[in-house]
Amino acid sequence: MSETRFKTLRDVPLQEYLAPGNPLCAGCGATPVLRMFLKALEGRAVFVNAAGCFTLLHVYPYTPFKSSWMYTAFASAPAGAQGIRDALDILIEKGKIPPEEDIKVVCFTGDGAAYDIGLQSSSGAIERGLDFYYLVYDNEAYSNTGFQKSGATPYAASTATTMPTKLQKEGHAGSKKDLFEIWRSHKPPYVATIAPSHIVDMLRKIERASRYRGPKLFISFTPCPTGWYHDTSESIRISKLAVECGVWPLKEAIYGEVRHTYAPRALKPVEEYLKTQGRYKHLFHPERQEHVIKAIQENVSQYWRRVAKTEKLDITIPSP
Amino acid sequence: MRDIKVMAGNVAAVEMMRVEMLTGNVAAAWAARLADVDYIPAYPITPQTEIIETLAKWIGEGVMKAKLVQLESEHSMLTAAGTASLTGARVFTATSSQGLFYGFEMLYNISGWRAPLVLVNVSRGVAAPVTLEPDHNDVLAARDSGFLQFHAETCQDVLDLILLAYRVSEDRRVRLPSIVNMDGFYLSFTREPVNLPSQETVKDFLPPYTPTLPFRASRPVVKGASVLGGHIYTYFKHNIHESMRRAVEVFDEAARRYAELTGRLHKPVEGFCLEDAEYVLVMSNSFTTMGKRAVLKLRERGVPAGLVKIVMYRPFPSTQLVELLKNRRAVAVLDQNISLGMGGIIYQEVAGALYHQRNRPEILMSVIGGLGGKYISPEEFEYIFNALQHPEGREPNTPLFLFRKDELESVKKALGLAGLGGEMG
What we know:
The structure holds two protein chains of two kinds. By secondary structure, chain A is of the alpha/beta class.
């Protein structure tokens, strides 16, 4: 691969743009990701937000942010990004502002906005070739409203609207929408998945994406202690497990060409990952739902068998 | 395209302006062009599309320097319009009816952001049943959103009011967005003579837009931050309300300057044949022209009839309206809208404005007509003025609903032809 300024954690820029003591939850998996994005973009960006957890990052008249921020509405953050980008472009073109006042535009939303209510808006922005970044913090539910199921909620997760019951023992009966593939089908220059446990991989991806003009899209794995029911100190460990168990593949697609940026030599069983979170507790207590755990494992294994084949990777994959 | 001649010697002299036959839609596009707008987020909807098609053509030909981007919905269109305005671009956009409703939540956001863009609404009745022709339920639904509202009677008004709207909206004492309303079909697709001011005149009238703390690399800024607590929310809402109230005098100031430059003076409310008028009809938008014709006919027959046109609907020009309506014998408010289960929307606002006026008219009658673009005949206007002269036995709180026997017959006939006469007739 091409040259990178990020080889180890020592290469993480020291400058901070997100002050501590902000109103976000302790252990939120999205905070370190936002922090890294700010570092990578050196704070010269406007983050265009949709309704979600991070809407409460700024409570008037306070801000922990050393970069710009624009809250729009639930469904249209990408359109908000479009307005800012287009305005900067035409104002520079008309000579009304100097080019050095230009800033990068980052759409920053949760999965509810990205997978569900704002999907139309992001599809439009990608189709128009908007020069922007989109960072989704995917905590796999509507966390800010109390953890209701979203289009990103995985099979068998317990949420406030998909509780395991006598009639629906496994919890959520549907499965997670594949946003990576939906985005990739638009053939944007750059799409990637990232995780807060894999900082160097993340910074390299932001760096690589920055070479392209057009949509640069990121989906971040985001442990959510209040919705997933795990200790606030566990977030990064859970993120690492998600990657090692193959639940959260780290990959990128450049103009539609997919490549996995990290592949574990031997995938750990998904059970190890599931057991870390209260939202999957019903799969183990009061009795083990073997067929559900098997189905989840088979889904993951099938994915990696396909990847191993197409990318010629030597991976040991558990067979349920 | 001919050159524009300006009277020599006198700066304040009214120009010799170019007159062209333009549809309301093209007049709106001309206003955006003359205002030198930077950005036009767009989305098609009948009967508004001709505006964005015209602008797209001009930009493509290079006669206008702006960026037009077609979004994937009105919700996105209005979002992009708002954020572009906050970034420092002069923004123009347009929609109608369902489109306005699809983007509705963004109206409140745009005003709350203090983004002084101008949105043209080409009025169209709201589904269901789905229709194309105008009434004002669409634009009046936006009355509480924090947008200033200006309603056009003619294609000339469309052009003038858009230019006035930019000046008032961008003024630091106001700094709020505007809606300029024109009726679909009756104005949007009807050619009328329109005086086009020169680019120089508009430049003279409309100073450059200077945004408040726009997004720039040199100075980070947070916009649209949340508030916790009703006290801060109230503080912001009251702030907008105060700015909105100030818009009345800012409009008057702008209108005087515009009149100096063009010879056309616009007022928040305009009177027609009001000297010694005892029976007055209050209305707005393109049907006002029909109302004026009816008033002139009645005057020929010696009936002291008059008319008041509401041009600025938000902020509501209560003081000016009361001034024109006090001491009249009877007033009718013609609403081309209906608040289902209540009646005419503007009627209630006029009644509210008059309540504390000692010399308020004894009779204040509500009339509902022109829904879905339904024509109002001269006889119907006459009927209204007759009812004002002979109000005996009429329940004042029940609106007079303009619907003629022959129109009912025509509905029945259509149902009969469809074989539904028995069940629905």
